[in-house]
Write a structure and sequence with these properties.
Layout lengths: L6 E5 L3 H13 L3 E5 L2 H10 L4 E5 L7 H9 L9 E6 L6 H7 L3 E5 L1 E2 H11 L12 E12 L2 E11 L2 E5 L9 E7 L5 E12 L9 E7 L3 H22 L5 E2 L3
Parallel strand pairs: 1-2, 1-3, 3-4, 4-5, 6-13
Antiparallel strand pairs: 7-8, 7-10, 8-9, 9-12, 10-11, 11-12
């Protein structure tokens, strides 16, 4: 887990919902703190305010809407973005969520891409940047060709628009290259890219290396990358869950 990982409190008294959503959020790069009800949430945020709250509408002791109203009435806590989570049968309460100050809401089963879209709206990173593309950790060897020379790099992260390659001697920003990216035993993508930044082994706490932005992606390549990343994030969870908590359906 990166030192700069954003912290999210997930509040839901349903153990399976917390477990699967927590695993997904950790894979998306978040530090997760679980809570069973609104009273626990209020205690937790007073000790260490999170970067984001996800509150289930229906909880014992203190429900999500009541918790949301408490948070938004507190001057020290009101700026924490809150995503409300609700069952389809409770969508009549959506207006109440938004009037109370929720940053957004999502219905169960939680669609992975809809969740990612909400996170884009709610969470900012250094310099006010937002993560606009779905991404996942990756541990694969990638073949890179530059000026007719080919070298293998180890990929540590993949997004729908780019890849991060570990290297103690990264290529300069602006370098154009070709990549051979093995996604599965049957699927390897040959893509073009440009180095957009690099991290130095002495000056950065994260993996030294370079970020490569893909160029001229076709619709098919975009769809393949999106499907691969979604499967990497939650494929096992979707198969394992015995009730509909997460979904990859459009």
């Amino acid at each position: 887990m990166s030192e700069s990982a954003k912290k999210v409190i997930i509040a839901d008294d349903h153990a399976s919902s917390v477990m699967y959503l927590a695993v997904l959020m950790r894979r998306m790069g978040f530090q997760v703190v679980p809570a069973k009800n609104g009273v626990e949430v209020l205690k937790l945020i007073k000790m260490a305010p999170p970067d984001l709250l996800m509150l289930d509408y229906t909880m014992p002791v203190m429900d999500g809407l009541t918790t949301l109203r408490h948070i938004k009435s507190d001057r020290q806590l009101k700026d924490i973005p809150v995503i409300m989570v609700t069952a389809h049968s409770h969508r009549s309460g959506v207006d109440d969520f938004m009037k109370a100050g929720a940053a957004g809401y999502i219905t169960k089963p939680i669609n992975i891409k809809q969740l990612h879209s909400l996170l884009q709206d709610c969470v900012t990173y250094s310099g006010g940047k937002r993560r606009t593309n779905l991404r996942t950790a990756m541990q694969k060897s990638v073949s890179v060709s530059v000026y007719g020379l080919t070298k293998n790099y180890h990929a540590t992260a993949l997004s729908e628009k780019g890849i991060y390659l570990r290297s103690k001697e990264p290529l300069p920003a602006g370098t154009e290259l070709d990549l051979s990216l093995p996604l599965t035993a049957a699927v390897t993508l040959t893509l073009r890219g440009t180095v957009i930044y690099h991290r130095d082994v002495f000056n950065d706490s994260t993996d030294p290396g370079m970020a490569v932005e893909f160029r001229d992606l076709s619709q098919r390549e975009t769809e393949i990358l999106s499907a691969y990343i979604t499967h990497a994030l939650a494929g096992d969870l979707l198969l394992e869950q015995d009730e509909d908590i997460l979904s990859d359906k459009a």
